[in-house]
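Problem: given the chain below (338 residues), write out its structure.
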Amino acid sequence: MKNTNHQEIILSVRNLKTTFFLNGGRKVTAVDGTSFDLYAGETLGIVGESGSGKSVLVKSILNLIPLPGKIEMGEVLLGDTDLLKLKESEMQKIRGSKISMIFQEPMSALNPSFSIAWQIGEVYRLHSNYTKKEIHEMTLDLLKKIKIPDPDMRLKQYPHQLSGGMRQRILIAIALACNPKILIADEPTTALDVTVQADIMDLLDDIKSKFNISIILISHNLNLVTERSDRIIVIYAGKIQEIATSEELVTNPLHPYTIGLMDSLPNIADQDQKLTAIPGELPDLTEQIPGCSFSPRCKHATDICFTVEPELKEVIPGHFCRCHLHCKKSAEDGRCAQ
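Solution.
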């Protein structure tokens, strides 16, 4: 995939394939031939239904796939370094210092047995030789930078003493402790109410500019991703179906799956709107899927869709789509035209 806008590429994923080997000889390919670039200073959204492979993709980037999973092929290039070729001891130095991740479920991601000060300080202890006093000062300063109120008190507290939103802020602090170049936020607003979700996303926006980092934002919430991302990747059944800028994806979605996701979003301003659900379910990835994986749910599918897998192609500059349809702007609605 070529860089059409000449931005600095900070991370390149090439032909990544991750498979889980199950009992009875069955296997699930959760990430299937994925390639994309992450640009310096951007927020790259990755969206798709639950089970589409979003979380497995970002865990593959960090080489955190547990057995019976295996990264079968591909490259994850951070500069000139292929992360998939590093030893585990070398990857441990990358995680947290170069690339950090905010995991799902803020209610359970923190260790209930240790104070907040200890858990943030652990990052410094793993990646540096700072003294105990220096670690305390740096931890306190970090909480101030991300606008956590009463930072002295928070450091002394334990996870059960914090609200869900405050726990999420602490997880963000842990991820930022060693000034990473890339921050992966995997469903960062899960289990949080709407007001707190907005606060967390505002914090991430502020962090991106203040810390000069790139963010990969994972979510099944298309509204959230389109509002907060510069570019968006749409994933279905382990494959990228569409890549475009946020504005382009909203105004000119090309893939029928993306269009279906858009049509299923409620519009508060339109009281007469009729929501349209995407028929069917995600395919069983333990079975061989001939042709396009979305074809059983696609109203535009033709014979070729069920037999030949489409390639991810650049339809217009910077806008990629995996679909046999012509994917040209329709004179009627600006969408994919057959």
